[in-house]
Amino acid sequence: ESADKVVLHTGKYEELIVCSHEIAASTAQLVAASKVKADKHSPHLSRLQECSRTVNEMAANVVASTKSGQEQVEDRDTMDFSGLSLIKLKKQEMETQVHVLELEKTLEAERMRLGELRKQHYVLAGVAGTAATPGEEKPSRPSAAPRSGTTKKPPLAQKPSMAPRQDHQLDKKDGIYPAQLVNY
Predict the structure, then answer these.
(1) Contact 100/107 with Cβ under 8 angstroms?
(2) Model pTM?
(3) Mean of pLDDT values over 172-178
(4) Where are the annotated coiled coils located (predicted)?
(5) DSSP classification of residue 90
(6) Residue 59 near residue 23, CB atoms below 8 Å
């Protein structure tokens, strides 16, 4: 459907790329689940793995072709600044900077939304994947996480800190050697 929409100029190239990635990911998930359930030496499993490789190659070809087609269409849309004065050019530059900042803000919001959607997907998949035992109530639907006004990014990973060793504690097997000053 996505490819048809792109060809008819009613769809987006990005949608086609996302669909191709989803197909490849779903195929990989199917193979992983099959590896768990199937016998290691099953001819069907090896055939499934071959088909999975083919699907991945074809999905990569679709993505590459889509990006190529997208670049060709964008190349036709070259910008012409020949009729602009210095002031008009500066005004467009500032408007473009504002637009870029707006897009970055929207992008960050959409990434957060995507993360929440993925979390919810995993929660629902986990709920659907586990059956309730007799006498145990199965949760009907998890509640949505409360949204706060500010979104915090997770802290960056820090380099592990080690207490410095004294010269007499240096150990060559750790790869730590004492520094020696030499005058030439």
Answers:
(1) no
(2) 0.49
(3) 56
(4) none
(5) H
(6) yes
13-22's contacts with Cβ under 8 Å and 24+ in sequence apart are 13/66, 13/67, 13/69, 13/70, 16/62, 16/66, 17/62, 17/63, 17/66, 17/67, 20/59, 20/60, 20/62, 20/63, 20/66, 21/59, 21/63
Find where tokens 């050019």 sit.
Answer: 89
Give the pLDDT confidence of 92-151 residue by residue, as tens digits. 889 999 999 999 999 999 999 999 999 998 888 887 655 444 444 444 444 554 455 455
Q: Residue 171: which residues within 8 A CB-CB, separation 6 or more?
A: 165
C-alpha–C-alpha distance, residues 119 and 84, integer Å: 49
- Cα gap 138→1, rounded to integer Å: 36
